[in-house]
Amino acid sequence: MKTIRTFSDYIATVIPGKVRKISVNAGLGCPNRDGTVGSGGCIFCNNDAFCPRYTRGLQGITQQIEEGIRFTANKGRADAFLVYFQSYSNTYGPTGKLVRLYEEALAVPGVAGLVIATRPDCLAPDLLDYFERRFGRLAPAGHPFLLVELGMESTLDRTLEFINRGHDHACSVTAANALSERGIAVGAHLILGLPGESESDWIGHAHRISSMPVTTLKLHQLQVIRGTALERMYAEDPGIVSLPTAEEYAASVRRFVAALRDGIYLDRFVSETPRDMVVAPSWGLKPSEFQKLL
Q1: Residue 183: is it exposed, middle or buried by C-beta count within 10 angstroms (0-12/13-18/19+)?
Q2: 28 phi, psi to nearest 5 deg
Q3: How many CB atoms lie within 10 A of CB 209?
Q4: Domain 7-293 carries which CATH code?
């Protein structure tokens, strides 16, 4: 039986004490929505589904972090905070603007590092150079922590094309290697259950992710979210997606995890989406409840 090592287990190896993650919305947009690489976005995506509600109406990064610290205070004591740039593509934009946002977050007392979620096709060379100097191989001792979380979603090009992702799997491999070579920890994000994929495809994902310099992995079950192209497709043909029960999905995830190489930390297994935004499937389980089931 493989032991599941969690994101908390990983963070304990790099930051001492109790660490809490605070999400922010930098409003940086997406090249798959503004016409740079595509329009309309990925068929499954509605940013409101994963934008923290406490950030809405708050403009500055500092204000969002302070509100997030208050909002999550009921989770108990925290010795340090990680600021999670979560919404949209958080390395998309002029490098000078991005650096100012990151440095603003790092200047908030108690912030020990950043987690930056982005697309693998949004890593400009000068931004990678900044990461290397500030957080990576060329950074001074005692530098802040950085994890860059790459939205790969699938390792199959046919799937990436179908979901209107706007990049192929080779792009994900190139991005992960570029970050790792600079001493930056790499996270990966996959959606299990995308249209046209079987469990054997998921095992293939596990093998391909295992061959990459990935430290953390976040899994989400496919959900049909309101306001997305997938919702319209599902209304026309419900058979376009497979909707396993929570128990069936957990069994598949167990087999997926068994196929992963040792050394990858599992950040998450399911998506936690506001129930009023979910069309299907709706299991009514919190991530912690699903993990007990797993």
Answers
A1: middle
A2: -90, -10
A3: 21
A4: 3.80.30.30
